[in-house]
Amino acid sequence: LAEKKVLIVYAHQSAGSFSAAAKEAAVEVLKSKDCSVEVSDLYAMKFKATATAEDITGEVKNSEHFRYAEETKLAWDEGRLSADITEEQRKLQEADLIIFQFPMYWFTVPAILKGWFDRVLTLGFAYTKEKRYSNGIFKKTKALLSFTTGSQETMFSPTGINGDMNVTLWPLQNGILHYCGFQVLAPQIFWAPEDATPEGRSAMLAAWSTRLVWVWEVSHLCLWTAHIHSRN
Ligand code: FMN
User: Fold this and answer.
1) Protein residue whose Cα sits closest to atom 12 of ligand 1
2) What is the β-pairing status of strands 97-103 and 142-148?
3) From 19, 149, 165, 190, mutation site for ligand 1 pocket: most ligand atoms within 8 A of C-beta
4) What is the maximum span of the chain, computed from C-alpha positions, in angstroms?
5) Tens digits of per-residue pLDDT, 106-122?
6) What integer is the mean pLDDT of 119-139?
7) ipTM of the complex
8) Using one digit for the tens of pLDDT, what is the confidence trace for 154-179?
9) What is the dihedral angle through the alpha carbons of 60, 65, 70, 74, rounded to the nearest 10 degrees?
10) Which ligand 1 atom lies nearest to the CA of residue 155?
11) Topology annotation, domain 5-231
12) How far apart are CA 49 and CA 173, in angstroms?
Protein backbone atom coordinates (compact mmCIF):
# COMPACT_ATOMS: atom_id res chain seq x y z
CA LEU A 1 0.00 0.00 0.00
CA ALA A 2 1.33 3.43 -0.90
CA GLU A 3 2.06 5.68 2.03
CA LYS A 4 -0.91 7.89 2.81
CA LYS A 5 -0.47 11.58 3.50
CA VAL A 6 -2.48 13.45 6.06
CA LEU A 7 -2.71 17.18 6.64
CA ILE A 8 -4.04 18.35 9.99
CA VAL A 9 -5.15 21.98 10.02
CA TYR A 10 -5.15 22.79 13.71
CA ALA A 11 -6.71 25.92 15.20
CA HIS A 12 -6.28 26.28 18.95
CA GLN A 13 -4.24 28.75 21.00
CA SER A 14 -3.53 26.46 23.93
CA ALA A 15 -1.38 23.35 24.26
CA GLY A 16 -3.43 22.45 27.33
CA SER A 17 -6.71 22.24 25.42
CA PHE A 18 -8.63 19.12 24.51
CA SER A 19 -8.24 20.15 20.86
CA ALA A 20 -4.46 19.94 21.34
CA ALA A 21 -4.77 16.46 22.85
CA ALA A 22 -6.98 15.33 19.95
CA LYS A 23 -4.42 16.67 17.46
CA GLU A 24 -1.57 14.89 19.27
CA ALA A 25 -3.52 11.62 19.36
CA ALA A 26 -4.15 11.84 15.62
CA VAL A 27 -0.49 12.53 14.83
CA GLU A 28 0.58 9.59 16.98
CA VAL A 29 -1.84 6.99 15.63
CA LEU A 30 -1.47 8.02 11.98
CA LYS A 31 2.33 7.93 12.19
CA SER A 32 2.15 4.51 13.82
CA LYS A 33 0.15 3.40 10.76
CA ASP A 34 2.97 4.66 8.48
CA CYS A 35 1.12 7.72 7.26
CA SER A 36 3.08 10.90 6.76
CA VAL A 37 1.51 13.71 8.74
CA GLU A 38 1.85 17.46 8.34
CA VAL A 39 0.33 19.88 10.83
CA SER A 40 -0.57 23.47 10.05
CA ASP A 41 -0.72 25.02 13.52
CA LEU A 42 -2.54 28.19 12.52
CA TYR A 43 -2.10 30.26 15.71
CA ALA A 44 1.58 29.28 16.03
CA MET A 45 2.02 30.29 12.38
CA LYS A 46 0.14 33.54 13.08
CA PHE A 47 -1.83 32.65 10.00
CA LYS A 48 -3.38 35.72 8.38
CA ALA A 49 -7.16 35.42 8.48
CA THR A 50 -8.16 38.27 6.17
CA ALA A 51 -8.53 38.00 2.41
CA THR A 52 -6.83 41.15 1.06
CA ALA A 53 -4.84 42.46 -1.90
CA GLU A 54 -1.67 41.77 0.11
CA ASP A 55 -2.20 38.09 -0.72
CA ILE A 56 -0.98 38.88 -4.23
CA THR A 57 2.59 39.79 -5.16
CA GLY A 58 3.01 42.40 -7.82
CA GLU A 59 0.35 44.42 -9.56
CA VAL A 60 -3.32 43.70 -9.11
CA LYS A 61 -5.47 43.89 -12.23
CA ASN A 62 -8.08 46.30 -10.92
CA SER A 63 -7.11 48.19 -7.78
CA GLU A 64 -10.19 50.43 -7.96
CA HIS A 65 -12.50 47.47 -7.69
CA PHE A 66 -10.42 44.70 -6.20
CA ARG A 67 -12.18 41.35 -6.59
CA TYR A 68 -10.56 38.69 -4.43
CA ALA A 69 -11.64 35.57 -6.36
CA GLU A 70 -10.70 36.90 -9.81
CA GLU A 71 -7.44 38.51 -8.68
CA THR A 72 -6.27 35.40 -6.79
CA LYS A 73 -7.21 33.24 -9.80
CA LEU A 74 -4.93 35.32 -12.00
CA ALA A 75 -2.18 35.38 -9.37
CA TRP A 76 -2.43 31.59 -8.95
CA ASP A 77 -2.12 31.11 -12.73
CA GLU A 78 1.00 33.27 -12.72
CA GLY A 79 2.52 31.97 -9.46
CA ARG A 80 2.03 35.30 -7.68
CA LEU A 81 0.05 34.21 -4.62
CA SER A 82 1.71 34.99 -1.28
CA ALA A 83 4.09 32.37 0.08
CA ASP A 84 1.90 31.36 3.01
CA ILE A 85 -1.05 30.56 0.72
CA THR A 86 1.15 28.71 -1.78
CA GLU A 87 2.62 26.58 1.02
CA GLU A 88 -0.83 25.59 2.33
CA GLN A 89 -1.96 24.79 -1.21
CA ARG A 90 1.03 22.50 -1.64
CA LYS A 91 0.22 20.63 1.58
CA LEU A 92 -3.42 20.30 0.54
CA GLN A 93 -2.57 19.05 -2.93
CA GLU A 94 -0.33 16.30 -1.55
CA ALA A 95 -2.80 15.10 1.09
CA ASP A 96 -5.04 12.03 0.86
CA LEU A 97 -6.90 13.13 3.99
CA ILE A 98 -7.29 16.51 5.62
CA ILE A 99 -8.42 16.81 9.22
CA PHE A 100 -9.59 20.15 10.60
CA GLN A 101 -9.14 20.20 14.40
CA PHE A 102 -10.75 23.14 16.21
CA PRO A 103 -13.05 24.25 19.03
CA MET A 104 -16.52 25.24 17.85
CA TYR A 105 -16.87 29.04 17.94
CA TRP A 106 -20.31 30.57 17.40
CA PHE A 107 -21.66 27.49 15.62
CA THR A 108 -18.74 27.42 13.20
CA VAL A 109 -14.94 27.48 13.00
CA PRO A 110 -12.66 30.04 14.73
CA ALA A 111 -11.93 33.08 12.52
CA ILE A 112 -8.35 31.97 11.88
CA LEU A 113 -9.62 28.74 10.30
CA LYS A 114 -12.31 30.57 8.34
CA GLY A 115 -9.43 32.70 7.05
CA TRP A 116 -7.63 29.53 5.95
CA PHE A 117 -10.71 28.52 3.92
CA ASP A 118 -11.10 32.02 2.45
CA ARG A 119 -7.44 32.36 1.46
CA VAL A 120 -6.28 28.83 0.59
CA LEU A 121 -9.29 27.54 -1.35
CA THR A 122 -8.89 29.98 -4.22
CA LEU A 123 -10.71 30.06 -7.56
CA GLY A 124 -8.90 27.92 -10.09
CA PHE A 125 -6.92 26.03 -7.46
CA ALA A 126 -9.82 24.64 -5.40
CA TYR A 127 -12.91 25.15 -7.55
CA THR A 128 -14.25 26.49 -10.80
CA LYS A 129 -17.82 26.78 -12.05
CA GLU A 130 -17.31 23.59 -14.05
CA LYS A 131 -15.51 21.72 -11.30
CA ARG A 132 -17.45 21.61 -8.07
CA TYR A 133 -19.38 19.21 -5.83
CA SER A 134 -19.21 15.63 -7.19
CA ASN A 135 -17.09 16.88 -10.10
CA GLY A 136 -14.94 18.94 -7.74
CA ILE A 137 -11.18 19.35 -7.91
CA PHE A 138 -10.55 17.53 -4.60
CA LYS A 139 -12.84 14.56 -5.25
CA LYS A 140 -10.00 12.13 -4.54
CA THR A 141 -9.30 13.65 -1.11
CA LYS A 142 -11.07 12.86 2.15
CA ALA A 143 -11.89 15.62 4.61
CA LEU A 144 -13.05 15.44 8.20
CA LEU A 145 -14.13 18.03 10.73
CA SER A 146 -12.93 17.13 14.22
CA PHE A 147 -14.02 19.57 16.90
CA THR A 148 -14.80 20.20 20.52
CA THR A 149 -17.90 21.94 21.87
CA GLY A 150 -19.00 23.62 25.05
CA SER A 151 -22.48 22.14 24.55
CA GLN A 152 -23.70 18.70 25.50
CA GLU A 153 -24.90 16.44 22.67
CA THR A 154 -28.59 16.73 23.61
CA MET A 155 -28.44 20.51 23.10
CA PHE A 156 -27.56 19.95 19.42
CA SER A 157 -30.35 17.43 18.70
CA PRO A 158 -33.21 18.50 16.38
CA THR A 159 -35.33 19.28 19.45
CA GLY A 160 -32.48 20.65 21.58
CA ILE A 161 -32.00 24.37 22.29
CA ASN A 162 -29.28 24.74 19.65
CA GLY A 163 -31.10 22.74 16.96
CA ASP A 164 -29.75 20.00 14.71
CA MET A 165 -25.96 19.71 14.44
CA ASN A 166 -26.33 18.53 10.82
CA VAL A 167 -27.92 21.86 9.96
CA THR A 168 -25.14 23.71 11.79
CA LEU A 169 -22.48 21.83 9.82
CA TRP A 170 -24.13 22.21 6.39
CA PRO A 171 -22.27 25.40 5.38
CA LEU A 172 -18.90 23.89 6.33
CA GLN A 173 -19.42 20.36 5.05
CA ASN A 174 -21.47 21.11 1.95
CA GLY A 175 -20.80 24.78 1.19
CA ILE A 176 -17.03 24.58 1.58
CA LEU A 177 -15.74 21.01 1.60
CA HIS A 178 -18.09 19.22 -0.76
CA TYR A 179 -18.20 22.32 -2.98
CA CYS A 180 -14.48 21.78 -3.60
CA GLY A 181 -15.16 18.10 -4.23
CA PHE A 182 -13.84 16.64 -0.96
CA GLN A 183 -15.24 13.33 0.24
CA VAL A 184 -16.63 14.48 3.55
CA LEU A 185 -16.28 11.88 6.30
CA ALA A 186 -18.59 11.89 9.32
CA PRO A 187 -17.58 14.63 11.75
CA GLN A 188 -15.73 13.72 14.95
CA ILE A 189 -17.45 15.64 17.72
CA PHE A 190 -15.99 15.85 21.21
CA TRP A 191 -18.94 16.95 23.28
CA ALA A 192 -18.15 19.29 26.17
CA PRO A 193 -14.69 17.98 27.07
CA GLU A 194 -14.37 20.70 29.72
CA ASP A 195 -17.27 19.11 31.63
CA ALA A 196 -15.97 15.56 31.25
CA THR A 197 -14.06 13.57 33.86
CA PRO A 198 -10.43 12.61 33.15
CA GLU A 199 -11.71 9.10 32.37
CA GLY A 200 -14.32 10.54 30.02
CA ARG A 201 -11.68 12.57 28.19
CA SER A 202 -9.40 9.54 27.88
CA ALA A 203 -12.28 7.50 26.49
CA MET A 204 -13.02 10.17 23.86
CA LEU A 205 -9.38 10.22 22.77
CA ALA A 206 -9.24 6.42 22.63
CA ALA A 207 -12.36 6.31 20.43
CA TRP A 208 -10.81 8.91 18.10
CA SER A 209 -7.57 6.94 17.82
CA THR A 210 -9.48 3.75 17.03
CA ARG A 211 -11.52 5.51 14.39
CA LEU A 212 -8.36 6.80 12.69
CA VAL A 213 -6.95 3.29 12.38
CA TRP A 214 -9.87 2.50 10.06
CA VAL A 215 -10.18 5.89 8.39
CA TRP A 216 -9.06 4.66 4.94
CA GLU A 217 -11.67 1.91 4.94
CA VAL A 218 -14.80 4.01 5.34
CA SER A 219 -16.68 5.82 2.63
CA HIS A 220 -17.91 9.35 2.88
CA LEU A 221 -21.14 10.80 4.17
CA CYS A 222 -24.30 10.80 2.11
CA LEU A 223 -25.52 14.05 3.60
CA TRP A 224 -26.40 15.35 0.17
CA THR A 225 -28.69 12.56 -1.02
CA ALA A 226 -31.81 14.26 0.28
CA HIS A 227 -30.72 17.50 -1.35
CA ILE A 228 -30.05 15.86 -4.72
CA HIS A 229 -33.42 14.07 -4.69
CA SER A 230 -35.21 17.28 -3.90
CA ARG A 231 -33.74 18.87 -7.05
CA ASN A 232 -35.06 16.10 -9.35
N1 FMN B 1 -19.47 25.97 22.29
C2 FMN B 1 -20.57 25.50 21.62
O3 FMN B 1 -21.04 24.40 21.91
N4 FMN B 1 -21.16 26.25 20.64
C5 FMN B 1 -20.69 27.46 20.26
O6 FMN B 1 -21.26 28.09 19.37
C7 FMN B 1 -19.54 27.98 20.96
N8 FMN B 1 -19.04 29.21 20.64
C9 FMN B 1 -17.91 29.67 21.28
C10 FMN B 1 -17.36 30.90 20.90
C11 FMN B 1 -16.21 31.37 21.50
C12 FMN B 1 -15.64 32.68 21.04
C13 FMN B 1 -15.60 30.62 22.53
C14 FMN B 1 -14.35 31.13 23.21
C15 FMN B 1 -16.13 29.41 22.92
C16 FMN B 1 -17.29 28.91 22.31
N17 FMN B 1 -17.84 27.66 22.65
C18 FMN B 1 -18.95 27.19 21.98
C19 FMN B 1 -17.17 26.79 23.65
C20 FMN B 1 -15.96 26.05 23.06
O21 FMN B 1 -16.34 25.35 21.90
C22 FMN B 1 -15.36 25.10 24.09
O23 FMN B 1 -14.89 25.85 25.15
C24 FMN B 1 -14.19 24.30 23.52
O25 FMN B 1 -14.62 23.54 22.44
C26 FMN B 1 -13.59 23.38 24.57
O27 FMN B 1 -12.57 22.58 24.00
P28 FMN B 1 -11.01 22.93 24.10
O29 FMN B 1 -10.48 22.34 25.39
O30 FMN B 1 -10.37 22.25 22.93
O31 FMN B 1 -10.86 24.43 24.06
Assistant:
1) 105
2) parallel
3) 149
4) 58
5) 999 999 999 999 999 99
6) 97
7) 0.99
8) 999 999 999 999 999 999 999 999 99
9) -10
10) 3
11) Rossmann fold (3.40.50)
12) 20
